[in-house]
Amino acid sequence: MAKATSKQAKVKAGKWLTVVYSPVSLFSLKRSDATSMAARTNLVPTPYAIKMALLKVMLESQGAHHIMDFDGWIKQEFTWIRDLEIRVLPPPCLVVNRNGYKLRYYDQTADKADKTRPTMPLQDGFVFREWVHLPDHLTLCCGATDRTADLEVLFSQINYFGKRGCFFQYLPENKQETEQPTVDIDTSSSFTIQPMDDLGEKATFGRINPYSEEKIRLESDRVIKPGLLPLQLVATSARYDLYQRGS
To answer: Among residues of the chain, what percentage have pLDDT more than 70?
Structure first.
């Protein structure tokens, strides 16, 4: 399970929804402190990535029905998704593969507005990337909310987390609706700390909307806190890391 260690327990009305996905391909999601050339990956999807995936499928499936009242509708829908607490349970084991690639890319220091250039200059370079092999199911536990039915519909429409092409298959038969969260972590056992970004309590749709003129504010609209994953590093080399989940 992944959750912020400093997050205060809050009493919320509603139930918890647990959903399960089967990974279809390798997973990769750049850590928030990664650079464009050297990018380490999160081991699992973060709450921020999961909530953005929920918003994406909601807008794609329902946005066209709210053209006339979009601002009021999206404010209400964004708020309940933003306020969800999301806990992530990784599979019993996972492998992080490290890769280096040589490629050609546009010179980032060149003046892209210079119309006298026939083409943008290219330069050679190496990039570092990580990919995670998840051999078993990924479990997400979300709550507490009185909109578990709506939440399940949205989760059923998500087919990838992280980079485009990192596909997951939703497993409807594993859905659970409970009064208490089904995912928790025993801090007395081995665990791994991963930075987990999430939507801040005062975040608005305008600030996270890439088409808006409003600017997202780090540590206010998007917060990054240490999260705990019940994983232990059991083997490592220059090319891979092997993690196993405690019993």
So the answer is: 88
